[in-house]
């Protein structure tokens, strides 16, 4: 493994940490409705738990209402029950072929809890990025020890890994600030 490989590997792993953070932040509810809220809901479909998105079409009816249209009409009751039983605090109601899922407005206290949750997710992402930095630095030190790289090369590469880390931590902070603003907007 060369110095460039170590840096490339670290960058790819840090980018995956950012992608994971984005996916986790998408699950956190804001004041507006979005279909991603229902990603964690599973429905009993012919005896096996199936993600809601595979048995129904999810759409936004308006800023506070999600529309769920089952692919099979007989699934409507099971879908409605699955949404109600999930721990999301949503109360769906059937209207013809479509199930309307209104998202209640968040209270100030609940908004603050959501912000805390996003900060926890952000801190986890930062820890992951720092662990990747540590792994890369250990790999660089091992290369010096094995005499496949000089100490000067190791120091330069270590500085570049630190710059990568700083860049990704700044991106995490930016994502968190955007999400916090989104949550606190009434």
TrEMBL record:
What is the name of this protein? Ribosome-recycling factor
Function, in words: Responsible for the release of ribosomes from messenger RNA at the termination of protein biosynthesis. May increase the efficiency of translation by recycling ribosomes from one round of translation to another.
Signal sequence annotation: none
* Subcellular location field: Cytoplasm
Q: Which CDD domains match?
A: RRF
At the top level, the lineage of the source is: Bacteria
Respond yes or no to whether keyword Iron-sulfur is given for this record: no
Q: Which PANTHER family match?
A: MITOCHONDRIAL RIBOSOME RECYCLING FACTOR PSEUDO 1, RIBOSOME RECYCLING FACTOR
Q: Which Gene3D superfamilies match?
A: 3.30.1360.40, Ribosome-recycling factor
HAMAP family per UniProt: RRF
Family per similarity comment: Belongs to the RRF family.
Tell me which UniProt keywords the record has, alphabetically: Cytoplasm, Protein biosynthesis
Ribosome recycling factor domain: which residues? Answer: 21-184
Q: What is its main location?
A: cytoplasm
List residues traversing the bilayer.
Answer: none
Organism equals: Massilia consociata
